[in-house]
UniProtKB/TrEMBL annotation:
<keyword id="KW-0862">Zinc</keyword>
<dbReference type="InterPro" id="IPR051262">
    <property type="entry name" value="SMP-30/CGR1_Lactonase"/>
</dbReference>
<dbReference type="InterPro" id="IPR013658">
    <property type="entry name" value="SGL"/>
</dbReference>
<dbReference type="GO" id="GO:0016787">
    <property type="term" value="F:hydrolase activity"/>
</dbReference>
<dbReference type="Pfam" id="PF08450">
    <property type="entry name" value="SGL"/>
</dbReference>
<feature type="binding site">
    <location>
        <position position="233"/>
    </location>
    <ligand>
        <name>a divalent metal cation</name>
    </ligand>
</feature>
<keyword id="KW-0378">Hydrolase</keyword>
<feature type="active site" description="Proton donor/acceptor">
    <location>
        <position position="233"/>
    </location>
</feature>
<feature type="binding site">
    <location>
        <position position="121"/>
    </location>
    <ligand>
        <name>substrate</name>
    </ligand>
</feature>
<keyword id="KW-0479">Metal-binding</keyword>
<feature type="binding site">
    <location>
        <position position="179"/>
    </location>
    <ligand>
        <name>a divalent metal cation</name>
    </ligand>
</feature>
<feature type="domain" description="SMP-30/Gluconolactonase/LRE-like region">
    <location>
        <begin position="33"/>
        <end position="288"/>
    </location>
</feature>
<feature type="binding site">
    <location>
        <position position="145"/>
    </location>
    <ligand>
        <name>substrate</name>
    </ligand>
</feature>
<feature type="binding site">
    <location>
        <position position="35"/>
    </location>
    <ligand>
        <name>a divalent metal cation</name>
    </ligand>
</feature>
<protein>
    <submittedName>
        <fullName>Gluconolactonase</fullName>
    </submittedName>
</protein>
<dbReference type="InterPro" id="IPR005511">
    <property type="entry name" value="SMP-30"/>
</dbReference>
<dbReference type="GO" id="GO:0046872">
    <property type="term" value="F:metal ion binding"/>
</dbReference>
Length: 304
């Protein structure tokens, strides 16, 4: 795709956020459904999920692509905690796990109020160490991205987990299919995608915003923006508070008020994205069968 065809500018501000001469690099092709990219600056590597192929992949600038873990228990979204450890959502086991420094796996959450979780999807870690994740039913709807099963939870929730005490709380319970999530740079807002239109066009394809109260609760839920092509899946914010979302035609960028200011066109449906590279100014994009990367003129807000 030529550079001139990549960008769709809806607001002049978007020109200052992109590098017009930067090409869209396809780093790997061969996934069935690429998801959950997470950047490790200290290791100069990107990990991501290839869910139906039951594997986690690794990319480094020096060595290219290799398999990081297989089988992966149909792992989907990933992030890192404040100690730099990998936090993962697993469809196959319906749990959230932490990969320790020695490679062992610790189960952080797999049940709520005595019943199995649906299929944890995406996850972020707040600066206080708490872990926030979504729990739609995608991983139990078929055997393609998990294991078909009936949900045990009556609702599809957003959760807050305190890994120190093990306390798990449902902070939002009225989503149809909660998906990607991201904090604003100052952590006063949590954005959560509802991707229910993936299986029913009449259902939501929007991102909601919630005020974070006392670092523990969510309040004042409202629709932040709509996705006009496909659905919102993975989302991330930059240091200026702009929200970058996956979509059917690529990546959509919204300003802090929810106004669409630009798009990055990608040849395949985008599932997720993250900022990475030494300066966190390279956008890594998991899109159906491929992993793409694109340099931008902004910096991602997520740490470490």
């Amino acid at each position: 795709m030529a550079e001139a065809d990549i960008y769709e500018i809806h607001d002049p501000r978007f020109r200052q956020m992109i590098v017009m001469s930067a090409g869209l690099d396809e780093l790997y092709s061969g996934c069935r459904w690429a998801e959950g990219p997470v950047w490790f600056n200290d290791a100069n590597q990107l990990l991501w999920s290839d869910i139906p192929n039951q594997r986690m992949m690794r990319w480094t600038p020096e060595s290219g692509v290799s398999v990081y873990r297989q089988p992966s228990d149909f792992t989907n979204g990933h992030t890192r905690d404040r100690q730099g450890r990998l936090i993962s959502c697993e469809h196959g086991t319906r749990r959230v796990t932490r990969t320790e420094v020695d490679g062992s796996i610790t189960v952080l959450a797999d049940r709520f109020e005595g019943a199995q979780l649906n299929s944890p999807n995406d996850v972020v870690v707040k600066s206080d160490g708490t872990i926030w994740f979504t729990d739609p039913t995608y991983g139990i709807m078929s055997d393609y991205e998990g294991h078909r099963a009936e949900p045990e939870q009556p609702t599809r929730n957003v959760y807050r987990l305190d890994p120190t005490t093990g306390e798990l709380a449902a902070v939002v319970t009225d989503f149809i299919q909660p998906n990607g999530l991201a904090f604003s740079p100052n952590e006063t807002i949590l954005y959560v995608a509802d991707s229910a239109a993936s299986h029913d066009e009449s259902l939501p394809r929007h991102i909601r915003a919630f005020d974070v109260v006392d670092g523990r609760r969510l309040a004042n839920g409202r629709v932040f923006c709509l996705i006009d092509n496909g659905i919102p899946d993975g989302i991330r914010t930059d240091v200026n508070g702009n929200l970058w979302s996956s979509a059917g035609d690529g990546v959509h960028c919204f300003d802090p008020t929810g106004k669409l200011i630009g798009k990055i066109r990608v040849p395949q449906t985008v599932a997720n994205l993250t900022f990475g590279g030494p300066k966190r100014n390279r956008l890594f994009i998991a899109a159906t069968r491929s992993l793409y990367a694109l340099y931008v003129a902004v910096t991602g807000s997520q740490l470490p």
